[in-house]
Amino acid sequence: LQNAELGKRAPRWIRDNEVTMCMKCKEPFNALTRRRHHCRACGHVVCWKCSDYKAHLEYDGNKLNKVCKDCYHVIMGCTDSEEKKKKGILEIESAEVSGNSVICSFLQYMEKSKPWQKAWCVIPKQEALVLYMYGAPQDVKALATIPLLGYTVDDTPRSADLPHSFKLTQSKSVHSFAADNEELKQKWLKVIHLAVKGET
């Protein structure tokens, strides 16, 4: 929702399973300590610390509702546009980065001998030589970044169970990825082949 509409219209609730961390302070949720709360103004999933604010929401008959810190400031009329300017891509919501990306999708990812894990991968337009990895499409902070310049691309699959895999290597660092199908793999390779040479 745009700032002007906050509290006037009911938000779309982001589902719990779409995020792995608080959408405000980026604390990871875990089963024991972090209960998930929804901001009643923007619909974001936040932790208890970030949902400790209340504001009167027009769409709910001006009743007091739990809201996140950001919405509280907007509804109460404080501005924090300065904060937004200071943020780098790492701190911008994945959904925002994905919407303005060269390519984005889920890929399986493996580093060293760790098990494969699913990651939401994005190459943003404004930094087309960097691959950002998020835990989920709505997360607000990237888990890792790979500056692609200078990497070598190896697109011969290593294992039969992940036939659409490819590898990025540079001296000692090796990042393995696997797409769900050959078409997606080729799309990623097209972009990555350019990025490792410094082209976009």
From TrEMBL:
Source domain of life: Eukaryota
InterPro entries given in the database record: FGD1-4_PH2, FYVE_RhoGEF_PH, PH-like_dom_sf, PH_domain, Znf_B-box, Znf_FYVE, Znf_FYVE-rel, Znf_RING/FYVE/PHD
Record flagged with keyword Zinc: yes
Keywords: Cytoplasm, Cytoskeleton, Guanine-nucleotide releasing factor, Metal-binding, Phosphoprotein, Repeat, Zinc, Zinc-finger
Domain FYVE-type: 16-76
Subcellular localization(s) per the UniProt record: Cytoplasm, Cytoskeleton
GO MF terms held by the record: guanyl-nucleotide exchange factor activity; zinc ion binding
BP GO terms, sorted: cytoskeleton organization; filopodium assembly
GO cellular component terms given for this protein: cytoplasm; cytoskeleton
Domain B box-type residue range list: 17-67
Start and end residues of each PH domain: 100-197
PANTHER family linked to this entry: FACIOGENITAL DYSPLASIA PROTEIN, FYVE, RHOGEF AND PH DOMAIN-CONTAINING PROTEIN 4
Protein name as annotated: FGD4 protein
Lineage of producing organism: Eukaryota, Metazoa, Chordata, Craniata, Vertebrata
